[in-house]
């Protein structure tokens, strides 16, 4: 039998076929439902034809959709509402959290079964292709000042995602509210006498001969749905949604309903994104064409045909539905065998779930269970009376039936009658059969569930997937009378969604979907640095992990993406990894020249004095690399760095404590404090004098030189010389050590950066990228500052000062957006590599707390890249103890080398330090795979995806593989970059294989 189905939502044209229709008022945009819409009065018709030797039968069908808006829809005489349920990642939930997750749907549904009527429900798990192009265009549109390469970068990533065919799980719960017919005797959420009803009925009939002719020709008659009736049913739907608020669902919109109708009729073919395919006026209103397709009803499957609207080319998909025919007599709730979760995450192809169920009130459920128990007992007695011994299976069924009756009586709980079906689609019959066999085998082996494919029922099973009333199916033996918990035990909303998740607050959308960073299972993971602050979350990102796990590659990728989008990025780069990325993308393979590093250290790259000129001048023009240790003394003077003089004094104390160590600083603290008071007092006197002369406070601050650390040392030296000259032995004793230690500090590596008679600040950071390197920097070997030697203390304190400098450089005012022309805060980012060196000390942690707190206000995100997590946990804990929110909105945790290290990372992920799943996972992660805690506190495994060969080369920090990968110039345009999928051979692999193995001695 062949079928042809033309589906319309509100709008009829002179088609000699029957159409599915939803009404839309003329006062609304096409595709929006209204209260006074028109719809067809025809229930449908069929037409068959045969010729000589022909046996095929043709049916033209109409499905009875009559009205839809963003809260209710009418299917035949039934009124329905729908909720889209959010996915919840469950990968690292503990037993109690999983139990709570499983109990969520049943608790919500129990609220619907409090009356005396059955309530029909329909659960659907479907897969919606991610429209990556829309994502890329939206992301480019919100960027502050995107380069052309950045726009191309996102568009190419959209192409990449669509090649992979990424899908998003959609979980939809549909609830039948009741009937438009009086005394229908059907199911509903309210008493039948209270159902809204429109006297004198819905069908006003056809008026006049012209209307009669039109109705006969088109199958569409004039119909009127009273706005007051729509309003009453909308109120009922609102109350249902409120009773299900624990499910955190959102109302199913008309646009989403249209997609849900189209999806079963497209199989594995893409569903058109347009809200309607066409419109046609009908009276004062309009009807919208939703889907147009033809199909063939085969014995074991349906053939679905779609046609390209431009080329007219036919596209074909094959679909079949299987029914869960046999379940284990007893099922123990386990995460790995939850049936809905299993179908979504453990099968290699999409498996859509269709569960039709009826909620049965307590008394009716108890009566049904009593009858079943009675029948089983009667059967057992009959067997005994006839001299036969009841078999074990029957005895077990009697026991189970009695337990069910006892549970119902004890808990006064409603029940449900349900049938669960699984639909698969494929581009060919051969592939469809393969998938069917795999699905049946996996369910039988792993879940002990038997799946059967009903023959000659596939068209009705396909129709049953459509929202609304379902056709009658002659497969009642597969219905199960069971507890409501069955739905929750399947973990239907368990998914793998992670990353950016915009939310609605007070009618305003907060956040956006950022750059693609990798994959959580089959789902893409997107992340943008500033989505956290945009959602009023903290201003920090933490990337933690042992060396070689992949944290640097992710950090470097984010640095490239954010700076190209217009985020002003400042990097504290002790290991020069970020500088190396900039060098490669700007100068290409020249980075492998032995003389390149000399010109880089001298700051000559790209100048007439260097033979190394950029292959990408535009990228290099927006990049500044500053080698701090090669720079002038005094650039880290605390009063140069700090926001104001009081803050400079506090920073000066912290820096001297860091340079000298706690023990020595305590011995010289008193003379230092006195010297600081002297130089700050002179400054304050000069400021007052300038103001007395008529200058404003701002002008005076600009003209009066601030104190310097050099002056503090001079004051100590002067005090020492005065004590010696005056013969004050006690003062001389105290000052001698102070002047000796401080004078020596002015000459030591790193420390000299804080001392100058006339310190000058670094140039203002106005480019997209500023990288401050500390070539030769040696990170302390120990994480405990008490174990640091003098050289390590100097390096760590200098790094802390650089971070302070960076945080102040990012603290700039409003700017004019170069794209929109509007005035606003330009997004900024401070990347701190080897962050544990800073956060190891209390003063460093205080600095980070200030930077993280201020970041949200100034749209400045701090990215902490570190091997040690314990100090970051202390920062978060101190915020929690003080009643504040976590300042690190997202965490990426890569491989940890030991259980002890992993237990320190777990709290940063929001999990207990003794969480066995998290601790074990962190130790077993492969390179490039991490655990992410996103802004919604969800935790899951993410495989980082660099996507492009050029990004892989630019982010390579391995001295063995990097030269080979960076031996080729990256194309100027991202449009010419190469997907990693298309790389036939990795140059690094080739280089390693070409290296002769050392011979054994």
Please state the oligomeric state of the protein chains shown: single chain
Radius of gyration: 36 Å
Structural class: alpha+beta
DSSP strand (E) fraction?
15-25%
Shape, per Cα inertia axes: elongated
Number-wise, the strands total 35
In whole angstroms, the N-to-C terminal distance is 78 Å
**Strand count, sense and closure of the main sheet?**
18 strands, mixed
Poorly predicted tracts of residues: 1-55, 199-222, 994-1001
Helices, by number, come to 32
Calculate the mean pLDDT score and round it: 82
Give an overview of the whole structure.
The chain has 1001 residues and is of the alpha+beta class. 38% of the residues lie in helices and 20% in strands. It is built from 32 helices and 35 strands. It has an 18-stranded mixed beta sheet that branches. Strands 24-23-35-34-33-25-32-31-26-28-27 form an eleven-stranded mixed beta sheet, sandwiched between helices. The chain has a two-stranded parallel sheet with strand order 8-20. A hairpin with a 4-residue loop joins strand 13 (285-297) and strand 14 (302-307). Helix 19 packs antiparallel against helix 20 (662-692), helix 20 packs across helix 23 (729-745) and helix 22 (709-726) runs antiparallel to helix 23 (729-745). The protein is elongated and about 125 Å long.
